[in-house]
Amino acid sequence: MSISYALDFTEGAVPDGWIPLPILEGWGADRKRRKWVKRCAELHWELHDGDPRDKAQVKELAGMLEGIAEQFPQKIPMQYLFAYVPDLRREPLPFFFYAAASEGPMEQVLDTLVQRNQPGAVQDPQIVDFTTDNLGKGLRSVRRFVPRGGEALAISVNYGWRVDSHGIDLSMRTVSDDIGWVSANVDAFDAFARSMKVVHPDDITVD
Fold first, then answer.
1. What local confidence, expressed as pLDDT, does residue 37 receive?
2. Three-state SS string across the chain, please?
3. Which of 158, 159, 151 is nearest to 177 (CA)?
4. 6-203, what's its fold?
5. Which whole-number Å values give the CA distances from 183 to 88, 95, 101, 141, 179, in the listed order?
6. Distances in Å between the alpha carbon of 66 and those of 97, 163, 189, 202?
7. Which of 30 and 44 is assigned the larger pLDDT?
8. pTM of this prediction?
9. What are 98's strand-pairing partners?
10. Can you give the residue ranges of every domain in the chain?
11. Which tens digits make up the pLDDT trace of 43-86?
12. Which of 3, 123, 181, 189 has its CA 20 to 30 A from that of 203?
């Protein structure tokens, strides 16, 4: 079954520090991707007037965004992709979004979305209620684990909601090996998630 939905935000714009990235394939995808990330990098620097800016800095950010937009959709199922870039000198942190038609008991589905019982965790995930006015019943987990085939510890922050208004179960997730930095930024991830809402694609307007 094809899932048709779009992500929007309560203030009508993507919150500061977050960049939507294209998921492209087929003929011309590379050219379109490069054009998109170059413009995103330019705009993101323009929004940070107090920071030094030159062509090399813009090119560096564009290159990191292009790498995320090119590589991750090939490895991880997703319908939307965002990069969190609060500091233009840091590597952007990717966030993946995937929705499926609601099916089965809500509690079990949400536990799966936040990886409550996923193997590999070094301790029980920290799971809290994350119900929002826009999305409905949800959970959020912070999970420390050793990736399959790896040795270094990693961290994931996983959100899951049952969005009854659209009949979908939605997940939002990121993974990183920078455990301290990700742990320190969970509040920022939460604020982004609370500002998010699901709408029909036809309801999205582009200025």
1. 78
2. CCCCCEEEECCCCCCCCEEEECCCCCCCHHHHHHHHHHHHHHHHHHCCCCCCCCHHHHHHHHHHHHHHHHHHHHHCCCCEEEEECCCCCCCCEEEEEEEEECCCCHHHHHHHHCCCCCCCECCCCEEEECCECCCECEEEEEEEECCCCCCCCEEEEEEEEEECCCCEEEEEEEEECCHHHHHHCHHHHHHHHHHEEEECHHHCCCC
3. 151
4. Protein Transport Mog1p; Chain A (3.40.1000)
5. 19, 15, 31, 11, 6
6. 18, 31, 22, 27
7. 30
8. 0.89
9. 171
10. 6-203
11. 777 666 555 566 777 888 888 888 888 888 888 899 999 999 98
12. 189
Please report, in angstroms and rounded to a whole number, the separation of the first and last CA atoms in the chain.
31
> How large is the angle between the packed helices 29-46 and 55-75, nearest 10 degrees?
130
How far out from the chain centre does Cα 167 lie?
21
Q: How far apart are CA 162 and CA 168, in angstroms?
A: 6
- 168: tokens are 């979908």
Nearest partner of 64 among 96, 30, 88, judged by Cα = 88
Sheet holding 154-163: strands in order across? 18-21, 80-84, 93-101, 168-176, 154-163, 138-145, 126-129
CA neighbor of 122 nearest in space, from 144, 140, 142: 144
